[in-house]
Amino acid sequence: MTKEAITIPTADGVADGYFFHGPAPAPGVILYMDGIGLRPALYDMAERLVDNGYSVLLPNMFYRFGPAEPLDLSKDRDRMMQMVGTITPTTSKRDTAAFLDYLGTRPEVKGKKVGTTGYCMGGAPSLTAAAAFPDRVAAAAAFHAGRLATDSEDSPHRHVGDIKGEVYVAVAGIDPFLGPTETDDIRAALEKAGGRHRLEVYADVQHGFTMPDLPVYDRDAAERHWDSLLTLLRRNLQA
């Protein structure tokens, strides 16, 4: 497995990040980070995807504030929330256009179809990518994500009807970051869109349950997330 530090020109600057790949070409996956940013826990997740047959792009979504650097929730929460606020459907769509172009230049990526997966803040960009680039994104997942259904005209739930790929959304049963009707709204939107879209509530686990470096990590639920994600990707990218 190879991990490369990379930079990608975007409409708003230059995004740094990492590209992970094995020795042979494999389908591409974009991993959209959570609000804590790039760190070893996410590198391990990208490596697990590589081990399961994918080439993985892990971009720094906060590149507008400079190169990736560790965030300490006990000290940097206000700064983190400021950065999270810049990740909108509009900015993530522009970024994803550049990410897809980049994957198209890499010989380690097999085929044009890609998968996306996002966590917390990264869930909305994952679904936005599937709606904005329906001929490229064959599978999109979002785990313990926020802002999937908002009052904004560009809210992801308003555009799931544009998605051609398969969608999987996993909601934490205990998630104070969700609006009171957000889960029902995204579920209704997915059901109306039809297709192969599914939402599941992971009962009794907290926001962030997939992240092994957080105190809310839940091993059983995290492994269930891996089973669901890998099944989704395999069905759509390795058939």
- Average pLDDT taken over every residue: 97
Order of strands side by side in the largest beta sheet? Answer: 1-2-4-3-5-6-7-8
Under CATH at level 1, the class stands as Alpha Beta
CATH topology: Rossmann fold
Poorly predicted sequence stretches spanning 5 or more consecutive residues: none
Strand content: 25-35%
Compressed to H and E, one letter per element, the order equals EEEHEHHEHEEHEH
- Helix- and strand-based class? alpha/beta
What radius of gyration results from the CA coordinates?
16 Å
Largest sheet: 8 strands, mixed
Q: Categorize the overall geometry.
A: globular
State the domain count: 1
Topology:
Blueprint lengths: L1 E9 L2 E9 L4 E7 L7 H12 L3 E5 L13 H12 L4 H17 L3 E11 L3 H10 L4 E7 L22 E9 L7 H12 L3 E10 L12 H19 L2
Parallel strand pairs: 3-4, 3-5, 5-6, 6-7, 7-8
Antiparallel strand pairs: 1-2, 2-4
Walk me through this protein's architecture:
The structure is a single chain. With 239 residues, this protein is an alpha/beta fold. It has one domain (2-237): Rossmann fold. The chain is 34% helix and 28% strand. The protein contains 6 helices and 8 strands; from the N terminus they run E-E-E-H-E-H-H-E-H-E-E-H-E-H. It has an 8-stranded mixed β-sheet with strand order 1-2-4-3-5-6-7-8, sandwiched between helices. Strand 7 (166-174), helix 5 (182-193) and strand 8 form a beta-alpha-beta unit. Helix 3 (89-105) crosses helix 4 (123-132). The longest helix has 19 residues, at 219-237. It is globular, with a radius of gyration of 16 Å. The two termini are 23 Å apart.
